[in-house]
Design a protein that fits this description.
906 residues; alpha+beta; ten-stranded mixed sheet; eight-stranded mixed sheet; translocase; transmembrane helix; Cation-translocating P-type ATPase
Length: 906
């Protein structure tokens, strides 16, 4: 294998940033001035493939539909439909078959979501790149770039592939999409000595799909396509397979239990019938009736409808979920890993604190709105900010429109906004005082200087303004401006250094400002760098990406709800710790390098003490989410940048910001349209409410199921009405025309107050826990016993072939018991008769009317197999049915009393 093949084939394993530029160019057998030849480029393109991200093939509609059909509940229903048709029960077979089709259609529509997370990476490719080939600068399609190409970059360009900088001038790139670093990163060709330098600190490299915000550069391409950092993220996305939601796992488990109950009961009934000498067709019909009774045929559809209602509620609150089961998963969230930039913060650099002439000032307002006050200690004189305002406007290039639109460096934009708050307009100031000379910013010397002719005390002087890192600016100052006048720098150096340390410890990015006056004819244009000396220090500004106004309150509510909130960012650890302290996240911070040194077990043990993570890589974010899940947490991860995508896909709930990249939107399971972290907390509250509704629904549904199973088993074992207490059509009518309305009542019941004061539910405690199953059996037994009574008090009128009063009364008692039981089962352990109840009564009047129609209207009698009842028979059925809610409310009252007795005294 050739040197270039080795070099170009394994860029991910080669630390190009720790090698000299000429060595990197040589490794790729390229030429820094002439680039590759056209022939070499063509050959390498054939070897390495296009500079594009490999896309995942999304599942087809038929594949998704088949997965829905394979659901155990649907498989059981298919078996019931086929057997029904086989024994000539056509109406039953058609109804059950239609139900299967409905379940598959609803499930398939929800599952056909945007799963092509990696496709979005491919769409991010910029169409053109400027490359040197055969000594000529060409503009080519970015997908045709190959390792070894020499590419030129300038401000405004998107970097087309990963590359090592050969030469640069005042280069800065915005890497928030890749690393999460909110501020632009100064770049240069200087070689980094440490081969283990973190991605965010590789200042001699540029990365695909990051943006050049300032300066120019020439780079040698070291990685294309899947070998870029973006490609590695794509690989991680492909390797992360979405798991089932907690609700899906619970329903799957519940379905398995129900299958054993259903088919076990069917087996008992069939064996009992055969031993009794009944015909095989009758026994099979009886088994079908039992199966329909024992299988919660409407559960998939009802759960889908309930989750769909929840998704609409979330959408109204600016949270869009792509999969219905994710609505419920939100309610189980016990840990939130939040990105910082653009999620908890505004992603708008803002001057927050000012140290000027030895005094402290706070700056109101946030973001790029030119509104806010500069406040000072009451009683102290307010200084003139003229020199600072001139430095802010003249020694910067960014522009900020009145509506907040920024062109140029975001940090400089923050300075322009501060100048506006001081009363200075950047555009007018720059027009009035044109540059005579300048020293452009460069990461090598970390400052910028500009020179202008300024009127001072009636005389026009040449004035130089300098901004840069506090240490380098301070080293070039001989004096400092104070409230008392200009004094030697030695008198105030310690105070300035202490002020700088104070700002840095708050996580602020600190810039220093200074100026120098020259004679009008001073020849600074000949050597402007030499003129950056003997400066007068003016002050320091502290810049930060400010918190969103709602973030702190949202974090408080989340922690009050027992949810662990952690901030995971590509910014420096000190910035992460400062932001975390403002948010009230709790103690403990760590850098990416520190957690990389820990084993999985060590990191798991440390997690309870860590709430802020800085300088993390995409792999770190993915690992943190995975380890939390292994410890039993239901993890939500928020983010807006490409570097968040893999972790979003790994998390139980990946939450993308509406203003974020397409990649995060497609990798995530939920999108916050308003980018508001507080919306996530609202979504968790709604998710908890939806889960409570699902629990109430399952309680109601399983009580119905147990009542019917017991009814059919007792009837079969004791030979009541030849083992047919209700016909299959009656059971289907109860399931789809009666039981649906109590479900609607449960669905529309408001979210209980104080739901966010409870801890997250334990995902290990399933819906079908011992206490819940006991309750289902007790409530089901109530409905069973009341339904059985008519069959016992009118034994002489029973008939398994003709409509009769006892079976009709049993049907009515079962229907009314379900209606009244659904009303009181909508809440637990709270009373189901508490307000609001009027809306519930309105909805439940519909199944009451349907029950009367099913018994008293001729064509319905023929369809369902009922007969008319007398007034006394209706009153008897009503009295039996009312026992159900009365006894359920008594049981809940006893349970509430026990809970109150066990509650600790406060």
């Amino acid at each position: 294998m050739s040197a270039v093949e080795t070099a170009a084939g394994t860029p991910a394993e080669t630390a190009w940033y720790s090698q000299e530029p000429d060595a990197v160019v040589a490794a790729f057998r390229s030429d820094r001035d002439r680039g590759l030849t056209a022939a070499d480029a063509a050959q390498r393109l054939a070897e390495h493939g296009p500079n594009s991200i490999a896309a995942e093939k999304p599942p087809s509609t038929w594949q998704v539909a088949l997965q829905q059909l394979a659901d155990p509940m649907n498989v059981m229903l298919v078996a019931v439909a086929i057997i029904s048709l086989f024994i000539n029960q056509v109406s039953v077979g058609i109804l059950v078959g239609a139900l299967v089709v409905l379940n598959i259609v609803l499930g398939t529509r929800q599952e056909l979501k945007a799963k092509a997370s990696v496709d979005a990476l491919a769409k991010m490719q910029i169409p053109q790149a400027k490359v040197i080939r055969d000594g000529t600068l060409l503009q080519v399609g970015a997908t045709t770039l190959v390792p070894g190409d020499i590419v030129t970059l300038e401000a405004g360009d998107l970097v087309p592939a990963d590359g090592r900088i050969i030469r640069s001038a005042t280069l800065e790139t915005q890497e928030a999409a890749l690393t999460g670093e909110s501020a632009p990163i100064p770049k240069d060709a200087g070689t980094l000595a440490d081969p283990d330098t973190a991605l965010g600190d590789r200042t001699d490299m540029v990365f695909q799909n990051t943006q050049v915000t300032r300066g120019t550069a020439t780079v040698v391409i070291t990685g294309t396509g899947m070998q870029t950092q973006m490609g590695q993220i794509a690989s991680m996305l492909s390797s992360v397979k979405p798991g089932k939601s907690p609700l899906q796992r619970e329903l799957d488990s519940l379905t398995g239990v129900l299958g054993w109950i259903a088919w076990g009961a069917v087996a008992i009934i069939i064996v009992t019938g055969l031993l009794r000498g009944q015909e095989i067709a009758s026994v099979i019909l009886l088994g079908i009736s039992m199966a329909i009774s024992a299988i919660p045929t409407g559960m998939p559809s009802f759960v889908q409808a309930m989750l769909s209602y929840g998704s609409r509620q979330l959408a109204e609150h600016k949270a869009v979920v792509k999969n219905l089961t994710d609505v419920e998963t939100l309610g189980a969230t016990s840990a939130i890993n939040s990105d910082k930039t653009g999620t908890l913060t505004m992603n708008e650099m803002t001057v927050e604190t000012l140290y000027y002439r030895g005094e402290w000032f706070s700056v109101a307002g946030s973001g790029y709105e030119k509104v806010g006050e500069v406040r000072h200690t009451a009683g102290l004189p307010v200084p003139q900010f003229t020199q600072l305002a001139l430095g802010l406007t003249l020694c910067s290039d960014a522009t900020v429109s009145d509506d907040g639109a920024v062109i140029g460096d975001p940090t400089e934009a923050a300075l322009v906004v501060l100048a506006a708050k001081l009363g200075a307009d950047a555009e007018l100031t720059r027009s009035a005082f044109a540059r005579v000379a300048e020293v452009p910013f460069d990461s090598a010397y970390k400052f910028m200087g500009t020179f202008h002719r300024i009127p001072v005390d009636g005389t026009e002087l040449l004035v130089g303004y300098v901004k840069g890192g506090p240490d380098v600016v301070l080293d070039r100052c001989s004096s400092v401006a104070t409230m008392e006048g200009v004094v030697p720098i030695a008198d105030r150096r310690d105070e300035i250094l202490e002020a700088n340390r104070t700002l840095s410890e708050q996580g602020l990015r600190v810039l220093a400002f200074a100026f120098r006056r020259f004679a009008p004819d001073a020849p600074v244009a000949q050597d402007p760098m030499a003129a950056i000396a003997d400066l007068t220090f003016v002050g320091l500004v502290g810049i930060i990406d400010p918190l969103r106004p709602s973030s702190k309150e949202a974090v408080r509510i989340a922690r009050e709800a027992g949810i662990e909130v952690r901030m995971i960012t590509g910014d420096h650890a000190i910035t992460a710790a400062a932001i975390g302290a403002k948010l009230g996240l709790g103690e403990g911070s760590a850098s990416g390098a520190e957690i990389q040194e820990m084993s999985d077990d060590e990191l798991k043990a440390a997690l309870p003490r860590l709430h802020m993570f800085g300088r993390v890589t995409p792999e770190d974010k993915l690992r943190l989410a995975r380890l939390m899940q292994e410890d039993g947490a239901v993890v939500a991860m928020t983010g807006d940048a490409v570097n968040d995508a893999a972790a979003l896909k790994q998390a139980d709930i990946g939450v993308a910001m509406g203003s974020g990249s397409d990649v995060t939107k497609q990798a995530g399971k939920m999108i916050l349209v308003d980018d508001n972290f507080g919306t996530l907390v609202t979504a968790v509250r709604l998710g908890r409410g939806i889960y409570e509704k699902i629990v109430s629904y399952v309680r109601f549904q399983m009580s119905q199921l147990f009542s019917l199973v017991l009814l059919f088993l007792v009837a079969s074992i004791f030979g009541i009405n030849d083992g047919v207490p209700l016909t299959p059509i009656m059971v289907l009518f109860l399931n789809f025309f009666i039981a649906i309305f109590p479900v609607v009542v449960i669905l529309l019941d408001p979210v209980p107050d104080g739901i966010m004061l409870k801890p997250p539910r334990d995902p290990k405690k399933t819906i079908a826990n011992r206490g819940a199953v006991t309750l289902w059996f007790v409530y089901g037994s109530l409905i069973f016993l009341t339904t059985l009574v008519p069959l016992l008090i009118y034994p002489d009128e029973l008939s398994s072939t003709e409509p009769n009063v006892p079976v009709t009364m049993a049907f009515v008692v079962c229907a009314l018991g379900s209606i009244f039981g659904g009303l009181v089962m909508r809440r637990d352990p709270e009373s189901g008769l508490s307000a609001p109840i009027l809306a519930a009564v309105k909805w439940l009047s519909i199944p009451l009317a349907l029950t009367v129609v099913a018994v008293e209207v001729g064509f319905m009698q023929r369809l369902i197999g009922t007969t008319s009842l007398s007034g006394d028979e209706w009153l008897t059925a009503l009295g039996l049915a009312l026992l159900v809610p009365v006894l359920i409310e008594i049981e809940k009252w006893i349970r509430r009393a026990r809970i109150r007795r066990r509650a600790p005294l406060v």
